[in-house]
Design brief:
Length: about 425
């Protein structure tokens, strides 16, 4: 028959973790960071749960034990290890192990390390390996975690139920499992409630911050307005101080001078408006589309010069640099020069015809055949476009007169403006 008090054989899922895994988990929970807490000569050691299975067990033990005792009681740890930490030689290493063993022995006697069957010997710290040493480090780390939780996380540890981990039967595992599930559910609900309250608090803080920001901006605006009013009042006060000692007669004279200055200003404005009324009227006509709409447009004046005329005027075109079309656009200056050549040629031909009609001998056939042909061509062309040219001359004359009048008005206006300046 089996004893009911004897622990039953459990499955792999309920098998407790090994001491190495437990002590390393405790170190991680306590915040042990090898790059931070194991520097210098300890930096070459690989710190993990199998750290006490290598060749540098004693050296690896020193930063771990110091970290645990420093977490347990920083003041007492500095005092007890003052002569041997940090470890720099073999003598200090031996002294460090002696101090650590004495402190652990005291904790074991005080019942702080839990199990009463924990074997504690000084020789274990000379090798720092084996299952018994692993159990010592595990017990120390468990005790340090308990102390730190009660000391630094009291409000969290108070809500955690006390659970007896000394299991004696399979039913005890099921009971503890159900207790853990209920506690996890309760903690999850509490966490959700705390999260909602935190979100509500953040919303209130955000609303309060926005309200404070708005009030700050309003206050700054009011401050700026008051500052401007203060400066304006100070300036007005300074002006009043300058005139408060003046007599009534002096104040009346000052007012009269200001009124006279305003009258002169308005008189000059009215004079300028009356003198420049023609110019402003021209501007108004242009703005309101009442101006003269007659324009010279090169697209409506195609220039077609006969080839025989181009042959006659070739030298004059080169000499005067006449090019009727510049970049595809009709050039007004070249057009006027061409028109001048045309009038000169027309005048010469008219003079020649008058000479022929006054019974002068005609030119010989061998010398004047080409000239007679040109004369006949020009005469026929002149009859066709003479009337059109006369009308254009009249139009140009009237346009010239109008431009001269406008130029005269502009010159007079410029002269008046110069005199005023």
């Amino acid at each position: 028959m089996t004893n009911q008090n004897q622990p039953a054989v459990t499955s792999s899922t309920t098998k407790p973790c090994c001491p190495r895994s437990i002590f390393w988990t405790n170190l991680v929970l306590l915040g042990f960071d090898p790059p931070k807490h194991a520097v210098g000569t300890y930096s070459a050691i690989a710190f993990d749960q199998d750290v006490f299975t290598g060749v540098n067990n004693v050296k690896a033990m020193e930063p771990i034990v110091w970290f645990l005792f420093n977490k347990l009681d920083p003041n007492k740890a500095k005092k007890r290890f003052s002569s041997c930490w940090p470890v720099t030689n073999l003598g200090q290493s031996k002294e460090f192990r002696n101090v650590a063993f004495k402190w652990l022995e005291q904790l074991r006697k005080d019942g702080c390390l839990g199990n009463n069957d924990l074997v504690m010997r000084r020789s274990f710290f000379d090798e720092c390996q084996g299952e018994r040493f692993d159990r010592i480090i595990m017990a120390l780390s468990n005790y340090v975690v308990t102390v730190v939780m009660k000391r630094d996380y009291r409000r969290y540890s108070e809500s955690i139920p006390q659970i007896n981990l000394e299991l004696r039967s399979e039913s005890s595992y099921n009971l503890i499992k159900s207790q853990l599930i209920s506690q996890i559910s309760a903690q999850a609900q509490k966490f959700a409630q705390d999260t909602q309250e935190r979100n509500a608090c953040q919303a209130r803080w955000k609303s309060a911050a926005e309200d404070l920001t708005r009030r700050l901006r309003e206050t700054m605006k009011q401050s700026n307005d008051l500052q401007r009013d203060y400066y304006a009042f100070y300036q007005d006060k300074s002006a009043l101080e300058r005139i408060e000692n003046l007599s009534t007669e002096q104040l009346v004279n000052m007012r009269s001078e200001q009124m006279e200055s305003v009258r002169r200003f308005w008189t000059s404005c009215l004079t300028w408006m009356s003198e420049n009324k023609p110019l402003t009227d021209n501007v108004d006509e242009i703005i309101h589309d009442r101006a003269n709409k007659h324009r010279l447009d090169g697209k409506t004046i195609p220039l077609d010069i006969p080839e025989i005329m181009m042959t006659m005027w070739e030298n004059q075109f080169q000499k005067e640099r006449i090019n009727p079309y510049q970049n595809g656009n009709l050039d007004l200056i070249s057009l006027l020069k061409t028109y001048k050549l045309y009038l000169q040629t027309l005048s010469q031909c008219s003079t020649r015809n008058d000479t022929i009609n006054s019974n002068q001998p005609p030119p010989s056939e061998d010398k004047g055949d080409e000239g007679a042909a040109v004369s006949d061509t020009i005469t026929s062309l002149s009859k066709q476009i003479l009337q059109e040219q006369r009308s254009q001359i009249k139009s140009l004359s009237s346009m010239k007169a109008a431009l001269q009048l406008q130029l005269q008005d502009v010159n007079e206006s410029i002269g008046k403006v110069r005199k005023e300046c």
